[in-house]
Amino acid sequence: MPQHPQVDFDCDDRDVTRYTWLAFWDSTNSWLAERGYTLFEYRYHWRNSYLGHVTHWAPKLNNVSVSDVEHPFSKSGGDPEGLPVPPLSADCISERIGFAQDSLERHVALRLTKKSSDEYKILQFLIEQSVGLSLERFEGVLPHLDLLDFGDHSIVVMPRWGEDAFHPWFSTIGEAINYMRYWLKDIKSGNILVNHFGAFTDNPSNDLRRKLRRDGRLVYAIMDFDISMIFPPTATREECRLPSHLSWIGGQSQPHDTKQGELDYDPFAFDVGCLGVLFCEFRGEVTNPGALQQHFTRIVPMFAPLMDRMTTRDISRRFTASQALEFLESFASELTLEQLQFPAPPWNPGHPPYDKYDRWAGLPDTFIKDWDNFREPKPTFQIRLLRRICDCRICDYEWGYKLVQWVRRIIRFWQKGDTRASARGRAWPLGEQPILWEIRPDKA
Question: Which of 56, 184, 276, 431 could form a disulfide with 325 if both were Cys (CB 3.0 to 4.6 A apart)?
């Protein structure tokens, strides 16, 4: 019997080299084969003079496209001929993700995780509860099929779904609204997948995916729980706070909840803010430009109050996911067929980010007056000053951000009058220590 794979590195370290990861996946070949999975081949191909040689995963077994496969597996195909990679090849965006085919030659994705992590506990729960395996009760979470345990680690097995969920770009406003419905029912664009894949080089022009979206058969799902946390079921909403440095992991579609040197943040409100920024800023493909969705307000003005209330700096006034969904449904049901079928506006590469773009410009004065309470005001002088200080660096050291946080800790100490040390050695006021640290293995 093949020896189980050896992991001589920290799989949570994002600085692990590509060659280390490739050596790990190579070591899993026979072990995975014993369990019914055939690992893809790792290949190089020439993309262009700018990108040079890039990497991809290519299937070893029959890679015929399948459009009638049953959930939770994906439909596949729709690629034109003459692609520079084999059909149904997978992009190597992260070496932490591997690809394989099961005993029925269906495509699966593989991911290494630690058995001591919150991610592993979350995945155990999802598998035990059969979350996502039924399309009738599908709640927008990528189904997980198995956990292949060995030593202190486990390889998570998931059905392969397709990346680049925005591609091809939405044909109509109605398609974009349907997309928003999915994500307000559950909660970054790189973690959003769809139940279709083809060769990774051709997502922007894949006709099969375009047809599935048009017919309402394209299903969206969220993946990647490696920075997710488990809160105790008895914890109140006020107790569920996380340290601010976790809000910077990921790098895209993030609201400015911690840009002013905050010590911690509300992760639930932050997720809604992330969705709001995503709705404002996602774009069509470069070869066939779409639009920033915040530009849709010219066609559907109600997008303006929705997006402002999802991204407002006042957390107490920010929509919850259910409130945002209810608000969306309330005006979507009143849209005319002409509005729903209106094509995406032309893309303007000069559009500013979500917090600088005026989504209300050009809207009727009566509409602006009626919905003025939802309109996000410009940042105050205090907020602008704090952000300017927090942006100050010396040789990449964020001294401005550290200074503001230091001052905030002193103020919090004098306001609360008592502190205690967290598991990571930081001082947090009594009763305000993030639940995160109370569920860490070293705190059990």
Answer: 184
